[in-house]
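Handout for the seminar on molecular recognition.
Each group receives one record of this type.
Step one: identify the two inputs.
Step two: read the structure output and locate the region that could contact guanosine-5'-triphosphate.
Step three: write two sentences on what you found, then compare them with the reference statements printed after the record.
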Amino acid sequence: MASRSRGATRPSSTAAAANKNLQFKLVLLGESAVGKSSLVLRFVKGQFHEYQESTIGAAFQSKTVSLGDVTIKLDIWDTAGQERYHSLAPMYYRGAQTAIVVYDITSTETFERAKNWVKELHRQANPNIVIALAGNKADMMDKRAVEHQEGQEYAEENGLLFMETSAKTGLNVNDIFMAIANKLPKNDPQVGAGQAGRSRTGVDLHDTSPQNRSRCCSAFVGGSSS
Ligand code: GTP
Ligand code: MG
């Protein structure tokens, strides 16, 4: 069933979104050892390592997901949580359309640190950024220090998506990435194209116009102008 109807009339805005390939930049932030790399490893490769090495600087992975007729490529920047790398973070969240801020449900310090990341994103990131809060290590219920309700309430007050996750068991890992993918704007990527380095929507990979190409590069090379 060929649904390539480029020349056909578009009867509705739903049809206008058909067969779109969009690309978004996603950044993970949070205290060291909360499980950022483990969440990415679980989502991208379906694996978990008990002895996951601490990230140096940042690591990159990408994964493509489908949402009906829309294909979404997520370019995932997994940042290093150690304090000495903090100053690098803006390079990764600048130009990001979405962020997952992670804490460890067994540690109140990491929850406080997550709140600081949310504040920093609200102050300095793309104003339309979609933020999800992940309370990770939800398999360690017996050591729980942050109640589910605390995370949920903070997320509601601050307009964040929220889930408790476990990179170890896989609980809610796909779900949180898919919830984000669902929430990202699927409207015409030309909208907002004038804002250099602050793209409000994803890049339409089918659109090879020069305007789209320049949006692509300013959004994915740490906001640098080329
Ligand atoms: P940095 O790279 O230093 O910022 O740390 P990170 O946030 O990427 O944490 P990482 O994924 O390296 O995980 C730290 C440790 O926690 C590793 O030993 C993981 O195996 C473990 N871990 C990660 N996620 C989970 C989880 O959901 N449950 C349990 N029980 N352990 C986890
Ligand atoms: Mg890591």
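Reference statements: The domain at 19-221 is CATH 3.40.50.300 (Rossmann fold). Residues 27 and 223 are 14 Å apart (CA to CA).
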